[in-house]
Design goal:
The protein is about 50% helix and about 15% strand. The protein is an alpha/beta fold and about 140 residues long. It has a domain of about 100 residues: Rossmann fold, CATH 3.40.50. It has a five-stranded parallel β-sheet with strand order 2-1-3-4-5, with helices on both faces. The protein is globular.
Length: about 140
């Protein structure tokens, strides 16, 4: 099973899921989580830009290639909304996954419940912790809790 882990990049939630899923037949993919590389990949490959808008545009487009491929290839898409930043890109990824008919799991705390009600409505599961994600993945694979 292929799982794409999208969203917040400032905590260790991806590694928690991956390490807790050892032994399961799952391959995990996700965005580049090294902030500087993610921001600067476009200009590193295609050349510098004096205008910050075009600098960011190049990086966003290259990251979109990776993200689109990862979401399209995934069986399940997990989107994490963190506490500190507003992750517009995570909301976009959730919408893209929903539009493709992907099985979508959304993870966030109670503080975002109202703001993400439409995203939550598109998800097949809404959880608060990486442990719950792992339980869902195990259940999907072997039908046991």
């Amino acid at each position: 099973m292929r799982v794409y882990l999208s969203g917040e990049i400032h905590t260790d939630w991806r590694n928690e899921i991956i390490s807790s899923s050892e032994g399961l037949d799952i391959s995990f993919e996700g965005p580049v989580t090294e902030h500087e590389l993610s921001d600067d990949c476009g200009v590193m490959i295609m050349g510098k830009e004096p205008d910050k808008f075009w600098h960011d545009n190049k990086g966003a487009k290259l990251n979109a290639i990776r993200t689109r491929k990862g979401i399209m290839d995934a069986d399940i898409v997990v989107v994490r909304f963190g506490e500190k930043y507003k992750q517009w890109n995570a909301a976009f990824d959730a919408g893209f996954a929903a539009a493709l008919g992907k099985s979508l799991i959304v993870m966030h705390g109670n503080e975002h419940q109202h703001a993400l009600k439409e995203v939550d409505a598109a998800a097949l599961a809404v959880v608060e912790s990486p442990a719950q994600i792992v339980q869902i993945l195990k259940y999907v694979l072997d039908g046991k809790i």
